[in-house]
């Protein structure tokens, strides 16, 4: 189906009101954003465009106005309208899902058995390994899942720390934070094809960062990385290595980088490697043995994955695993700085 036709065929659900849809007042932002002259090249490659040409379709979407129910509506009428709205939205989601492509997401899942859980306010607040006094939690599942990933990436249950994140982005933010806490004066290195969350982390933590060019494959340019490491020998290195880049699925060669660090004079106590395994972190251990394995038997500091990419999940989630000694170097922090 033509993407433009598809976009317009999926109308937004009806509004909970007897009156017609309220005209949205012109906002400053839409006035400033001249969609027809917008600089397409300036938009991040992950943004919802430009299948339909130079016009950025998602800036044109209308926001549903939030309105009070009509005073003359009965309770039944109100409920019927809400049900109609949800049903209409579900149809739209089904159609969009049916035509979904271009993103490395697994959409083939059915978690119908979990539906009843939406009745509860489940919150694993604080450190997953420490019982909290908030009783409505799922720690037994969380730690079980973490133990599974620890086995996958070959780290002893006693030696890791981690948690279920809200997404791959959060895993990157946490892994790089652990690196930064261990090496406050470290320089972050990551390839130009890294996910945008990686350089966002560097900005958030006010770290010096070096964006290393990539090879045509999408892997980090090893020679450029080595030159940068040698030039900055005086400072520790915090590296983000990609285990599957978003667009090309490129896997940085962990073994090669470890050799290079040694050659450039970085001992294990002067570097921290975070592996952004959002895409392939889960499947690497199952590939041919000559692929560069992601394993804590090598001197890496952390690994993260995205739960809604390869696994497929209806809500964003992810996993991050770090070494306990690294994560606990600063006693004051864990997930959310709560423990
Ligand atoms: C998608 C992606 C992320 C971010 O994952 P989210 O779960 O969407 O936050 C990070 N790194 C890479 C390589 C990705 O493809």
Considering the protein shown, what is the CATH homologous superfamily of the largest domain?
Type I PLP-dependent aspartate aminotransferase-like (Major domain)
Question: Cα distance, first to last residue?
Answer: 52 Å
Overall number of strands: 7
**Ranges with pLDDT <50 over ≥5 residues?**
1-10, 12-22
Question: How would you characterize this protein structure?
Answer:
The protein is α/β, with parallel strands linked by helices and 339 residues long. It has 2 domains: 3-98, no CATH class; 119-337, Aspartate Aminotransferase, domain 2 (3-Layer(aba) Sandwich). It contains 10 helices and 7 strands. It has helices spanning 3-9, 28-32, 75-98, 139-152, 168-182, 196-204, 222-231, 254-263, 307-311, 324-327, and strands at residues 160-165, 187-191, 208-212, 237-242, 271-276, 302-306, 318-323. A 7-stranded mixed beta sheet has the order 1-7-6-5-4-2-3, sandwiched between helices. The longest helix is centred in the N-terminal third of the chain and has 24 residues, at 75-98. It is elongated, with a radius of gyration of 23 Å. The structure holds pyridoxal-5'-phosphate (PLP). Pyridoxal-5'-phosphate binds at residues 167-169, 172, 195, 197, 242, 244-246, 276, 278-279, 306, 308-309, 316, 318.
């Amino acid at each position: 189906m033509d993407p433009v036709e598809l976009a317009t065929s999926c109308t937004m659900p009806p509004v909970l009101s007897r009156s017609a849809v309220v005209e949205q007042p012109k906002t400053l932002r839409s006035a400033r954003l001249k969609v027809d002259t917008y600089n397409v090249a300036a938009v991040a490659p992950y943004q919802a465009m430009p299948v339909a040409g130079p016009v950025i379709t998602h800036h044109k979407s209308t926001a549903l106005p939030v309105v009070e129910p009509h005073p003359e509506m009965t309770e039944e009428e109100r409920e019927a309208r809400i049900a109609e709205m949800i049903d209409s939205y579900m149809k739209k989601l089904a159609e969009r899902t049916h035509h979904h492509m271009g993103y490395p997401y697994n959409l083939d899942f059915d978690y119908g058995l979990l539906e009843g859980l939406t009745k509860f306010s489940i919150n694993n607040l604080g450190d997953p390994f420490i019982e909290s006094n908030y009783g409505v939690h799922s720690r037994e599942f969380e730690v079980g899942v973490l133990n599974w990933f620890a086995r996958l990436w070959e780290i002893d249950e006693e030696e890791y720390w981690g948690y279920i994140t809200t997404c791959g982005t959060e895993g990157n933010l946490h892994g790089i934070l652990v690196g930064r806490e261990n090496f406050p004066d470290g320089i972050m290195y990551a390839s130009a094809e890294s996910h945008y969350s990686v350089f966002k982390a560097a900005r958030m933590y006010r770290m010096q960062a070096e964006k290393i060019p990539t090879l045509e494959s999408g892997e980090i340019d090893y020679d450029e990385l080595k030159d940068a490491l040698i030039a900055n020998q005086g400072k520790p290195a915090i590296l983000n290595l990609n285990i599957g880049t978003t667009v090309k699925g490129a896997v940085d060669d962990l073994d090669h980088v470890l050799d290079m660090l040694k050659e450039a004079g970085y001992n294990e106590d002067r570097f921290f490697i975070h592996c952004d395994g959002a895409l392939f972190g889960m499947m690497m251990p199952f590939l041919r043995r000559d692929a560069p394995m992601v394993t804590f038997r090598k001197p890496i500091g952390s690994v993260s994955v995205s739960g809604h990419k390869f696994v497929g999940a209806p809500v964003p989630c992810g996993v991050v695993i770090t070494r306990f000694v690294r994560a606990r170097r600063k006693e004051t922090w864990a997930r959310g700085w709560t423990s």
